[in-house]
């Protein structure tokens, strides 16, 4: 770690760091100076305790110094809490005046209470001498010196008392926390105190072992006395007692005792020091979130303290007489159960809005308050157990300027710093997101200026199609998009987790934030880091741009996609577990009575279902493939040629995406007849299909290129594959048929997931080229059912269809893939006649 000093104060600090030789003019002077440094009157005892501490290796004596000049501070010892040893303190208040001040985030009680879920299991880890694991940049160690009995010492590690120490330690531990949160481990870290949360006791034990092993491998020392390594559902952390079964939080017993001891000194006509009043205010502030109406009850005591008109720094030692008003202000805090009753935990994922409007004169505050009270009283049966947001409309008049359409950027900057919730992603980046994860239908946190979907909820304005405040409304069960303010990310996660919504989330990849582990727990696909570009984020109609978009580290998280698995998938999971589980007595894991009951319930909750009508119109897609941007083929971009080729191949073969992904361009696997009249494509010999032994080669004949068949010739898969192989010959770095067209992976093989995205994107582009809105929820696997159903409708035998699609039985096709692609029904035929 290096010490950062502002430029204008650097010279002053150099003048303060005089030659240390002047501090020790003689041995006698050195002895007197050492007595002044230590606080213990027993010099021998202090020296003994100090020498035992210096053996740890955090200090370095002047025997290795090249110069004794430096910044020297006072050094003393204080007893640790609970009487378990002593703590050395380096008084760096003078040095802190010269250091640059940085803002940084630490865990708060509010964030901690939002992190806990019902029925959670807790464990905690305490790091011993945590700061001493961070080394100091050697040239800066001279600022951390002190003298004792004629010997100069300097800190080689991060000391307590340095104003930069908390920020430096947090920044360093972020690197240690990041891999843990990527493994779905929920962690709340406050300097050297770490809290682990899990949904089951077994999961808590596993995560605790992972975290402790990870910390030990990094060189940290765990304080076993202060750590709680055995999972429990009630734990004390940061002065709070967290209980997940009743799902409540209250002050810890130690904090309650300290609170009551401080309150006991405030008796009428007794005298207390002014700093004790400030301490009591601090204790009240720390209890605001876990005591009911504490802000209201704290206000009276605040007014009494403010009426004293004393300065906290200059008048801290002044004695104050406790008056009757002070005793009255503390009456609620002395109630037996006030400090111990606790409050409910969790984040506010939804709320009800109660709107009132009544004002006869003036501000109407009394009437407004009474209207709210009567409204809540009337609707109490419907609002019980819910979070309520009251909206009050006062009768008032004020002048305001309506900004014009030409000065949106100037008006935005005149209001101060741009707000996080009003940033809009660049349209090209949004198109990349839609191509990866499908196009969302609803934007949850937007405005008319930055909405990415036609349907959206507004953060503030009233002109949103779906209303104001997404948390106050029910969300549609469509694919959702959200770029929320940082404070709204936890309630968004809780809402999605509780209602199984599908969502694409835009959020920073900051390992220090606790909700990152929750995002990883709900991931269903690989997240994507947004490309860093100068115009990535804008406001005010693209007139104001974010100065440092790279600092946000924005990612698109396809987490939060509904994880409801099909019953067949659940059976596969059970078979995999039973294969490696030792079983229960003479029964396997799958034969256990509870497991059997669970599977019967899963069959009822997740019945096998299949669509009866096509999810998209094949005729529209084929017409779209015959025109721009896919045709003319020689003038089409490599991207559009790739999309068209993979879609035509999927439709013509009815193969799985994995089978198409395995196709190779090696001479033994890709063969063309003379004149490109016929084509045979085979997968890589090392490819193992989903159904072993069922992967047959793709044999396709070319469409005629006669003048009358020119339109049909545009849909020839042989023509498309031949053209694609010719275009990619010079950039190809693999024998795999389909390779990437985009930098920096140009020419490298694409993954199966990327190939599936190509199929979906090709269908969407075909719709767009025809001036139509692409259907939502299209999947690449739908091409198998579409191709097989149309082949059956055109007279192809079921046996030939099953052979081409690698189905072992016609029953698979009939149960899961066959669609109704027949002509018009009886009703439409009659009405259209």
Automatic annotation (TrEMBL):
Gene3D superfamilies per UniProt: 1.10.150.130, 3.30.70.270, HIV Type 1 Reverse Transcriptase, subunit A, domain 1 (3.10.10.10), Intergrase catalytic core (1.10.443.10)
Key words of the record: DNA recombination, DNA-binding
EC number(s) per entry: 3.1.26.4
Record-annotated Reverse transcriptase domain positions: 59-242
Record-level Gene Ontology MF annotations: DNA binding; RNA-DNA hybrid ribonuclease activity
Any Pfam family: RVT_1
GO BP annotation list: DNA integration; DNA recombination
Similarity-based family: Belongs to the beta type-B retroviral polymerase family. HERV class-II K(HML-2) pol subfamily.
Name under which the protein is recorded: ribonuclease H
């Amino acid at each position: 770690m290096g010490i950062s000093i502002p430029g204008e104060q650097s010279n002053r600090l150099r003048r303060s760091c005089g030659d240390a030789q002047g501090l020790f003019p003689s041995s006698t002077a050195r002895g007197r100076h050492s007595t002044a440094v230590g606080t213990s009157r027993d010099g021998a005892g202090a020296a003994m305790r100090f020498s035992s501490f210096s053996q740890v290796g955090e200090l370095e004596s002047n025997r290795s110094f090249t110069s004794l000049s430096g910044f020297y501070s006072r050094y003393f010892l204080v007893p640790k809490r609970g009487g378990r040893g002593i703590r050395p303190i380096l008084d760096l208040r003078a040095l802190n005046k010269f250091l640059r001040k940085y803002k940084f985030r630490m865990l708060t009680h509010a964030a901690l209470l939002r992190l806990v879920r019902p029925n959670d299991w807790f464990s905690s880890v305490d790091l011993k001498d945590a700061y001493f694991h961070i080394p100091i940049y050697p040239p800066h160690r001279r600022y951390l010196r002190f003298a004792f009995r004629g010997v100069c010492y300097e800190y080689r590690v991060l000391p307590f008392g340095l104003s930069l120490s908390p920020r430096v330690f947090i920044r360093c531990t972020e690197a240690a926390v990041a891999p843990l949160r990527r493994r779905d481990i929920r962690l709340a870290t406050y300097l050297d105190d770490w809290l682990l949360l899990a949904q089951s006791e077994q999961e808590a034990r596993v995560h605790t072992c992972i975290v402790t092993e990870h910390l030990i491998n990094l060189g940290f020392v765990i304080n076993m006395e202060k750590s709680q390594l055995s999972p429990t559902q009630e734990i004390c952390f940061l002065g709070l007692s967290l209980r997940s079964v009743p799902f409540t939080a209250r002050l810890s017993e130690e904090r309650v005792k300290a609170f009551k001891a401080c309150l006991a000194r405030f008796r009428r006509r007794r005298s207390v020091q002014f700093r004790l009043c400030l301490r009591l205010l601090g204790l009240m502030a720390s209890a605001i979130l876990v005591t009911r109406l504490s802000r209201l009850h704290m206000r009276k005591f605040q007014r009494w303290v403010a009426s004293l008109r004393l300065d906290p720094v200059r008048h801290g030692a002044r004695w104050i007489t406790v008056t009757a008003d002070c005793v009255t202000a503390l009456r609620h805090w002395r109630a037996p159960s006030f400090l111990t009753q606790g409050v409910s935990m969790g984040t506010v994922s939804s709320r009800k809005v109660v709107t009132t409007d009544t004002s006869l004169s003036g501000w109407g505050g009394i009437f407004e308050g009474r209207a709210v009270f009567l409204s809540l009283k009337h609707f109490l049966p419907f609002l019980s157990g819910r979070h309520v947001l009251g909206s009050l409309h006062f009768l008032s008049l004020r002048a305001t300027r309506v900004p014009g359409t030409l000065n949106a950027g100037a008006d935005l900057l005149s209001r101060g710093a741009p707000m996080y919730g009003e940033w809009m992603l660049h349209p090209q980046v949004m198109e990349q997101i839609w191509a990866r994860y499908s196009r969302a239908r609803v934007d949850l946190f937007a405005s008319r200026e930055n909405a990415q979907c036609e349907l959206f909820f507004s953060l503030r304005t009233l002109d949103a199609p779906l209303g104001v405040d997404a948390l106050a409304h029910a969300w549609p069960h469509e694919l959702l998009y959200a770029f929320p303010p940082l404070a709204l990310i936890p309630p968004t996660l809780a809402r999605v987790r509780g209602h199984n919504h599908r969502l694409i989330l835009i959020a920073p990849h900051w390992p220090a934030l606790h909700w990152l582990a929750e995002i990883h727990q709900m991931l269903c696909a690989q997240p994507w880091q947004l490309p860093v570009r100068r115009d990535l984020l804008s406001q005010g109609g693209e007139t104001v741009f974010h100065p440092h978009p790279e600092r946000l580290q924005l990612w698109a998280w396809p987490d939060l996609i509904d994880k409801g698995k099909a019953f067949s998938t659940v059976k596969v999971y059970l078979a995999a577990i039973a294969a490696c589980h030792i079983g229960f007595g003479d029964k396997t894991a799958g034969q256990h009575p509870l497991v059997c009951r669970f599977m019967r319930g899963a069959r009822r909750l997740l019945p096998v279902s299949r669509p009866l009508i096509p999810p998209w119109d094949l005729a529209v897609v084929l017409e779209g493939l015959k025109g721009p941007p896919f045709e003319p083929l020689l003038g089409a971009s490599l991207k559009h040629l790739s999309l068209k080729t993979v879609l035509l191949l999927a439709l013509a073969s009815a193969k799985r995406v994995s089978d198409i992904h395995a196709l190779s361009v090696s001479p033994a696997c890709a063969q063309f007849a003379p004149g490109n009249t016929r084509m045979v494509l085979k997968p890589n010999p090392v490819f193992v299909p989903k159904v072993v032994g069922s992967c047959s080669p793709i044999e396709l004949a070319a469409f005629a290129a006669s003048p009358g068949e020119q339109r049909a010739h545009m849909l020839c898969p042989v023509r498309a594959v031949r053209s694609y192989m010719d275009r990619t010959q010079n950039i190809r770095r693999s024998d795999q048929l389909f390779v990437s067209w985009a930098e920096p992976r140009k020419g490298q093989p694409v993954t199966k997931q990327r190939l599936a995205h190509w199929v979906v994107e090709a269908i969407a582009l075909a719709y767009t080229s025809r001036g139509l809105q692409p259907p939502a929820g299209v999947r690449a696997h739908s091409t198998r059912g579409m191709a097989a159903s149309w082949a059956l409708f055109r007279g192809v035998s079921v046996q030939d269809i099953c052979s081409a699609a690698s189905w072992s039985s016609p029953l698979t096709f009939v149960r899961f893939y066959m669609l109704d692609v027949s002509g018009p029904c009886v009703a439409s035929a009659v009405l259209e006649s």
